[in-house]
Amino acid sequence: MSFGYRAKAMRATAIAAVLAAVGAPVMAEEITYVSGAVGKAVENFAALVKPWEEATGNTVKMVPMPASTTDQFAQYRLWLSAGTSDIDLYQTDVIWAPQLADHFVDLTEAAKDLAPTHFPSIIESQTVNGKLVALPIFTDAPALYYRKDLLDKYGVAVPKTWDELTAAAKTVMDGERAAGNPDFWGFVWQGNAYEGLTCDALEWVKSFGGGQIVEPDGTISINNEKAVKALETAKGWVGTISPEGVLSYQEEESRGVWQAGNAAFMRNWPYAYGLGNGDDSKVKGLFGVTTLPVGAEGDTSAATLGGWNVAVSKYSKHQEAAISLALYLAGPEAQKQRAINESNLPTIISLYDDPDIAAAQPIIPQWKDVFLNAVPRPSAPTLSHYNEVSSLFWSAVHDTLSGNGSAADNLAKLEADLTDLKGDGWK
Ligand code: GLC
User: Fold this and answer.
1) In terms of Cα–Cα distance, which of 67, 117, 116 is closest to 269?
2) 307 CA → ligand 1 middle, Å
3) How does pLDDT run across 317-344, given as a tens digit for each residue?
4) What is the CATH number assigned to the segment(s) 3-133+306-374?
5) Ligand 1 mean position to 285 CA, how many Å?
6) Taking the domains of the chain in order of start, what are their residue ranges?
């Protein structure tokens, strides 16, 4: 299927050939694309866009951004509010659509054939007041990565509850340290004060039955005993099964410890699966993945819904070419390449039955149900306030983990701050 980009590309190529034949300058366009740089994203990008460049005669310049989604958001907001025309396409986090919608082109018409091939809930998450503000390029839901070889060595089962995880991590860590590896840790995750901590902590709270911070109907639910218990449990890991330094870890720092063979467990997104099985990884072939633990038997595991999209800037001077590139990146050819090379989860339904993807990255078909049941962050109900809501939440969590006030006090204060922010209703 062409979804428009090939047809347009062929037209452009034909026009270019005619212009070249008469000696007129060929109007190839350079599209500037900004994106976060985690894992192999930058390395793979040139190969990913090559088929589109060849088909259209255009080129793509990728401008890598900091790995932290929080830092990217701050920068993008500055550029967009200044109306910069230097950037044509933005790679956007799933949570940003309601806050940035006004700055992007409506893709409803351009994607009318492509959008119905994606999971409807993901298209819905990028639709704001009927406007399709971004096209999904991959979705995300985290896994608990565990060292199969070491669980076997110490006769420990794959943990189902957070308490079991705590005990298993300690057994393996004590054993590996006694065996001569002082750098070995039980559990690595994302404890830095940024959006990633919101994701991790939402999973702890929700899997203890403590709600979703702000519920889909806008109710502020975070100040409850189950949430307190979840945060106190996580605080107990810092300096015991997790290094003190975990309080400044993002995804890549935890992956660094894990891939060096220095952790029994890791919480991370699927991109770490392919990299962990790479030739330069010390854990190649030694690990498994499962769903994150629950608070207690009877509770449900929670995975925060993540994912990335592409949005065309309203201020771009190359909108037609940028839309063509967006359709290509969100289309089946690019999503398949990304799934195989970066173990990113596709958003196109049929790719979950693709044998090449299943063979290259077995986590992908296994993870379909996990992301379909993933917990959204409260970006839809809190509208333009999501970034402040998240930043108040991760700060309360980071304070608790750092020993700056008890979980109960910090969540009571958070509830008061969120109530102020909400005023007479989320807007
Ligand atoms: C992953 C997710 C994204 C999330 C981020 C947090 O990149 O896909 O949605 O905001 O992690 O660090």
Assistant:
1) 67
2) 6
3) 999 999 999 999 999 999 999 999 999 9
4) 3.40.190.10
5) 25
6) 3-133+306-374, 143-304+377-422
